[in-house]
Amino acid sequence: MINVVKLNSKVTIENYNKHQFIVILVDSNKVNLKENKISERSPLGKALLEHKEKERVKVQTPEGEKIYRILAIK
Questions:
Q1: Which end of the chain is more exposed for a tag (fewer CB within 10 A), N or C?
Q2: Burial of 63 (0-12, 13-18, 19+ CB in 10 A)
Q3: pTM, whole model, 2 decimals?
Q4: What are the pLDDT digits (tens) for 35-74?
Q5: Which domains does the chain have, with CATH numbers?
Q6: What is the DSSP string of the chain?
Protein backbone atom coordinates (compact mmCIF):
# COMPACT_ATOMS: atom_id res chain seq x y z
CA MET A 1 0.00 0.00 0.00
CA ILE A 2 1.28 3.43 -0.92
CA ASN A 3 1.51 5.90 1.94
CA VAL A 4 -0.11 9.26 1.36
CA VAL A 5 -0.24 12.22 3.72
CA LYS A 6 -3.52 12.48 5.61
CA LEU A 7 -4.82 13.81 8.92
CA ASN A 8 -2.56 12.70 11.83
CA SER A 9 0.30 11.78 9.50
CA LYS A 10 3.81 12.39 10.81
CA VAL A 11 5.68 13.74 7.80
CA THR A 12 9.42 14.25 7.40
CA ILE A 13 10.09 16.98 4.84
CA GLU A 14 13.13 18.72 3.42
CA ASN A 15 13.38 22.31 2.20
CA TYR A 16 15.49 23.75 -0.63
CA ASN A 17 18.65 23.97 1.48
CA LYS A 18 18.37 20.33 2.63
CA HIS A 19 17.10 21.23 6.14
CA GLN A 20 14.91 18.36 7.34
CA PHE A 21 12.09 18.61 9.84
CA ILE A 22 9.01 16.73 10.97
CA VAL A 23 5.43 17.99 11.05
CA ILE A 24 2.25 16.27 12.19
CA LEU A 25 -0.99 17.24 10.44
CA VAL A 26 -3.84 17.77 12.91
CA ASP A 27 -7.26 19.41 13.19
CA SER A 28 -7.15 23.17 13.65
CA ASN A 29 -8.11 22.90 17.33
CA LYS A 30 -5.11 20.64 18.09
CA VAL A 31 -2.34 22.83 16.63
CA ASN A 32 0.75 22.99 18.84
CA LEU A 33 3.86 24.38 17.16
CA LYS A 34 6.11 23.30 20.06
CA GLU A 35 5.14 19.72 19.22
CA ASN A 36 5.38 20.34 15.44
CA LYS A 37 1.61 19.90 15.07
CA ILE A 38 0.28 22.00 12.20
CA SER A 39 -3.23 22.42 10.86
CA GLU A 40 -4.23 20.51 7.78
CA ARG A 41 -5.81 23.83 6.73
CA SER A 42 -2.51 25.74 6.90
CA PRO A 43 -0.73 26.46 3.60
CA LEU A 44 1.85 23.72 4.29
CA GLY A 45 -0.79 21.30 5.55
CA LYS A 46 -2.95 21.80 2.45
CA ALA A 47 0.07 21.34 0.18
CA LEU A 48 1.09 18.07 1.86
CA LEU A 49 -2.32 16.39 1.95
CA GLU A 50 -2.74 13.41 -0.40
CA HIS A 51 0.89 13.49 -1.57
CA LYS A 52 3.30 10.54 -1.43
CA GLU A 53 6.87 10.02 -0.30
CA LYS A 54 9.50 11.51 -2.63
CA GLU A 55 7.01 13.99 -4.11
CA ARG A 56 7.65 17.72 -4.05
CA VAL A 57 5.02 20.22 -2.94
CA LYS A 58 4.83 23.98 -3.49
CA VAL A 59 3.66 26.33 -0.75
CA GLN A 60 2.80 29.99 -1.21
CA THR A 61 4.10 32.09 1.69
CA PRO A 62 4.35 35.84 2.28
CA GLU A 63 8.05 35.50 1.34
CA GLY A 64 7.19 33.75 -1.93
CA GLU A 65 6.88 30.18 -3.14
CA LYS A 66 8.68 27.47 -1.18
CA ILE A 67 9.24 23.89 -2.31
CA TYR A 68 9.46 20.91 0.04
CA ARG A 69 10.22 17.26 -0.65
CA ILE A 70 8.43 14.56 1.34
CA LEU A 71 11.00 12.13 2.71
CA ALA A 72 8.84 9.89 4.94
CA ILE A 73 5.25 9.44 6.07
CA LYS A 74 4.20 7.61 9.25
A1: N
A2: exposed
A3: 0.91
A4: 999 999 999 999 999 999 999 999 998 899 999 999 999 9
A5: 10-73 (3.10.50.30)
A6: ---B--TT-EEEEE-TT--EEEEEEE-GGG-BGGGTEEETTSHHHHHHTT-BTT-EEEEEETTEEEEEEEEEE-
